Structures are given as structure tokens and as C-alpha cells.
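Hi, here's the filled form for the chain we discussed.

Project: internal
Contact: R.S.
Residues: 110
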Amino acid sequence: MDNSSCIALCLTFPGAYVDYPFDDDTANPTWTVLRHRNGKRCFAFFHTREGRDRVNLKCAPLTGDFLRASYKSILPAFHMNKVHWITVVMGGDADTLLPALLRDSYEMTR
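And the returned structure, exactly as it came back:
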């Protein structure tokens, strides 16, 4: 999976929308954020780093610990709380988990 396919999946969630809170140039954003229409809470932060697409997702602390220990492509969250958020590097061993992780993050932030 890549950022664009994950963003397309997120946009199928009820009330989800794309935001670019850190960029004036939306044609070339450094971060793409998915939010809930009600409350504007964020549930996914998409970015590219070191040539790899990545997403920061909300995650239960124990689940995050387990995922980081089990998958090389799941890391402590980049620029976020490392207890409650994870970073998934796309194109790695956790790609099959991405749809479920995206949905979980969406549900946790409602």
C-alpha cells in the first residue's frame, strides 16, 4: 500500500476528510491529515520520509507495544506521543494490517 491508496480507504469512513494543517501548498504537502468531520479530531497523519510512505495512527498502548515488537515496519510514532501512536512504514511486513489499523485509529478517535 501507499499513502494515496490508504487515504482513499480512509475517505470511505463516515465523515472523514482530508486536511493540510501544516502546509500552504496543498499540491505538494509534507503532511496529509485525515480528520473526523464532527469534532475535527485527527486519526491518520500521512507523510513521506527517507523515500518511504508512512502513516501515524492512534493505537492502544499495549497493542502498540505488541505491534512494534512483532513488525519491523511498525515504529514509535514520528513527532507524536510514542505511547498512544505508532508509525507504519508502507511496503513493509505490516501492509496487510493497514486497513484494520486505519479503521481502529478512526474508531479510537471518534
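Let me know if anything looks off before we file it.
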